[in-house]
């Protein structure tokens, strides 16, 4: 296990959105786990954008729970395409991982930070930029928010 000032990293969170940067971070986390026994790797995907639109629009009162379920299922199916790639990479390296989905209409950053704290995560490994499209930023807004608010160390992979 990796140590930092007497702190062992054993529970690692890999938030991912399928972007190139988040996939690199996931590969980095898997490589870390391969080098050390005892890591518990959790890959987390927050379903957010469609839900935020529904809740923030004036049509929100017309949305039924079955409509929300359909949207969540659709988002999970889209995510499965790149999560299969992550799982295959972990399997090739002999690393076991757990895949989690969270539905949060309010904040991707808040969902990740809250999850990390509730699950006693020791280290968050995140890509420097996600799918937002602000390619000129050195650090994406989600990565920046995670670095700012996380209770544990955050490794940002470029």
Q: What characterizes the major β-sheet? A: 5 strands, parallel
Give Rg in angstroms.
16 Å
Helix content: 40-55%
- N-to-C SSE string, H for helix and E for strand: EEEHEHHEHEHE
- The total beta strand count reads 7
**How is the quaternary structure best described?**
single chain
Looking at the structure, what is the overall shape? globular
Secondary structure class reads: alpha/beta
In percent terms, what proportion of residues is strand?
A: 15-25%
Whole-number mean pLDDT:
81
Strand arrangement across the biggest beta sheet: 5-4-3-6-7
Low-pLDDT residue intervals, each spanning 5 or more residues:
134-138
Number of DSSP helical runs: 5
- The rounded distance between the terminal residues' Cα atoms is 23 Å
How does this structure look, described?
With 158 residues, the protein is an alpha/beta fold. Helices cover 46% and strands 22% of the residues. It contains 5 helices and 7 strands, in the order E-E-E-H-E-H-H-E-H-E-H-E. The chain has helices at residues 20-35, 49-56, 65-92, 108-118, 141-149; strands at 2-4, 7-9, 11-15, 40-47, 97-103, 123-127, 154-157.
